[in-house]
Amino acid sequence: MDRSENARPQSGLRPPSHYPATTIPNMGLQEITDSQNNARAHTMPPPQGLKRAYNGNLPQPEPKRKTLVERAAEPIGANKSSLPAATSALSRPNPKGTSIAALAASNTTKPPSVTVPPSRYTSTSSGASRPNFAQSVGPGSRPPISNARPVTSMGSFGQSVSGRPRGNTRSRPATAMGDHTMEVSSGLGQQANGWDVDERLHEVESQFKVMKEAMNVSLTDRKTLEDAVDLAKTRANDLERERIRLDEKNSLLQSELDGLRHQVQSLTLTLEKEQRRNKYDLEDKSREHRHELDELKRELKDEADRVQRTHREALEALERHYRVELEDERAQKSREVQELRTKLGTEQQDLSIALLAKDREIQNLRSQVEAFKSDLDREQTVKGTLQQQIAEMSTTSMTLEDRNRALRAQIEFLESDSKQQSDSFTSMESRLQDALRLAEEARLKLIKEETERRMLFNKYQELKGNIRVMCRVRPVLDPTEGDEAKILFPDLKTSTQIDITGPEEKSSLGNVSRRVMPFEFDRVFDPSVYNEEVFGEISQLVQSALDGFNVCIFCYGQTGSGKTFTMSSDDGMIPRATHMIYETITQLKEKSWSYTMEGSFVEVYNEELNDLLTSPSEGKKKLEIRHDDSRKQTTVLHCKSVALDSADKVATMLREAQNNRSVAATKANERSSRSHSVFILKLVGENSATGERCEGTLNLVDLAGSERLKHSGAEGDRMKETQNINKSLACLGDVIEALGRGSGHVPYRNSKLTHLLQYSLGGNSKTLMFVMVSPMEAHLKETITSLRFATKVHNTHIGTAKSTKKTKERISDS
Ligand SMILES: Nc1ncnc2c1ncn2[C@@H]1O[C@H](COP(=O)(O)OP(=O)(O)OP(=O)(O)O)[C@@H](O)[C@H]1O
């Protein structure tokens, strides 16, 4: 065991390095002694003297079984001086904290005694070796056991003694004496003879002496040992006390340790508390920091919001500012635009006024041009007359020249006689006056001739008949329409006849035949004729209206036969009539005639009058018919009348009437073909030169479909419509018939239509009926019916006599 192990404290707790120096390691006494024993057991051989003394006879001492007493006794002899030092070392506080074991070890490792060299025994007495022996007994004084040393030194002794081989060799117990013996023998000299008894005896004696001395030494040793035992006992007691003191100290230390543990615990607790506190502090700090961070974030966010808000506000302010500016600018611009518009409007107005003025000017200029033209014509006539006169005058002039020459001769003869010249001027002036008078007379004659023309024209119209009937056959619109009826137009020259091949008829004999029915009218238009040509025929009647007559133009026929196409299509009779009227009015201005023209459009549906120029949204007022017998004029109360001061207005009026009719058509199916429409054009003309005044009316009537009720197979409202249509058409026939008969009573009031057209059907009025014919076989019966009705009308003569022709039906060849 080394010193460091001895110095280890008993308990597991190692005191800290800064432990107080007074503290002694907690080591038990037994342990100390054990350690010493062990140390000795390893390091110390038994005392040399004893070894020699008991070599071979004494029991070999058990080195590890030495008691404390023996061990205590060992250093006493040799360490009498060291014991007090040791005890004092134990008793006094060790400033460096050296342990007892360490002290013991130091005693062991540094023996104060010196081992007696063996050479001393060879030459010295026994008394001289004692202190050395005592010294060798002390602790640590013994030389360490050498492994090289033979356990049985006697063997070697024997060898060394004999120096030669021995035959009868006795073994001797190995003793420590061997060495001495050998040394002694060697000291006696090498020449001694082993077989010398004396010598051997001497040797034994000397050995005996030595042994005796050894005995004495042993006794002394014993005494010394006993003293040592006592001393050891004392020392043990001291040690026991020391142990108790150490125990006390130990317990003290334990309590101190407990205190320290407690302190450590409390420190640990404090530390834990501190840690906890620190943790809390840290958490608080962290919370604070987080809070601060949140605050900062919030502030930052607020700041950012504020900045954003500021920016937004700034932006909004800017936007507002710019918007206001923009609005201002826009308002200014719009004001400018408004001003410009106003200016433009004013300019436009001015322009339109100027335009109107220009128009008027142009019109005036035109009329002037026309007047100039007529003047020119007149002047040309006058010029012709004048040229004639000039020719006459040139003849006269030649005569005059002859006369002039003669006169010159006379003048020359008479020398400046001017009387004749002035006479000549006077005659020329009178001639001019005559020419002007003639021109005025010619103008008056022209006006008179216009009046005469009107009269003659009217007479001509009357001769043609006040009721005229024309027939028009529409073309086949589509090949899929069906079979075409056999219609012929035999009189190509005059175009007044139409031959209809009737349906198949069976005679009593069973012969099937078709009758050809010829119809003759004032004019027959085949399908190839255009509206333009048709209008050419009726233009004279329009002229009559301008001349102050009431004119009525009907379109009669079954549905789909072409009534509306003839009357109201874009190039129909109504637009053409109005255009013609405009043109004529303009022409008549040169004859000092000025006209006003008013138009209205009414519809007779189910024996009720409707204003087609008033839309249903404007509210419907009941129309009433008023007659002015003195003027022979009819007025429709509450009916819209449009001043037609331009030809375009007629087209607008027709469109408006068509629209209003379409709206009405949604309530009653196909209204247009189920009602009579009447376009009324009132014309009032005045002649500024003659003071004449004329008032005429042109009625353009598109009659409802003339199909028979039983044919149409109508029911309900449709039947009522058809009944009303048939009734009004029958009334028209009755009126015409009554007029033709010259009957005193004409049943105008039997239907709304005849009542409305009262002054346009009888008396001085002119009536033209178009009978419209479908070319289809399927419509043959209706065609024949219509043509028969038309013939009846055609045979009626109102006012003046009219030659009539008789036509005969014949049987068709086919
Ligand atoms: N002479 C014609 N040339 C070409 N097409 C015609 C002619 N006459 C009539 N039509 C066409 O025949 C069709 C029927 O004509 P329209 O509508 O004038 O008949 P309507 O007798 O007025 O019929 P409704 O009594 O039903 O009004 C129309 O499509 C029209 O354009």
UniProtKB/TrEMBL annotation:
Residue ranges, compositional bias (Polar residues): 79-91, 120-135, 149-172
Coiled coil, from the record: 222-452
Regions of compositional bias (Low complexity) in chain numbering: 108-119
Listed SMART domains: KISc
Main subcellular location of this protein, as a coarse class: cytoplasm
Keywords: ATP-binding, Coiled coil, Cytoplasm, Cytoskeleton, Microtubule, Motor protein, Nucleotide-binding
Source superkingdom: Eukaryota
Molecular function (Gene Ontology), one example: ATP binding
Domain Kinesin motor, first and last residues per copy: 466-796
UniProt GO BP: microtubule-based movement; mitotic spindle assembly
GO cellular component, one term: microtubule
Location in or out of the cell: Cytoplasm, Cytoskeleton
Pfam family, one: Kinesin
Binding site for ATP: G557, Q558, T559, G560, S561, G562, K563, T564
Ranges for region Disordered: 1-63, 76-173
Similarity comment: Belongs to the TRAFAC class myosin-kinesin ATPase superfamily. Kinesin family. KIN-14 subfamily.
PANTHER family with a match to the protein in the record: KINESIN-LIKE PROTEIN KLP-3, PROTEIN CLARET SEGREGATIONAL
Protein name in UniProt: Kinesin-like protein
Organism in which the protein naturally occurs: Lasiosphaeris hirsuta
Highest classification ranks of the organism: Eukaryota, Fungi, Dikarya, Ascomycota, Pezizomycotina
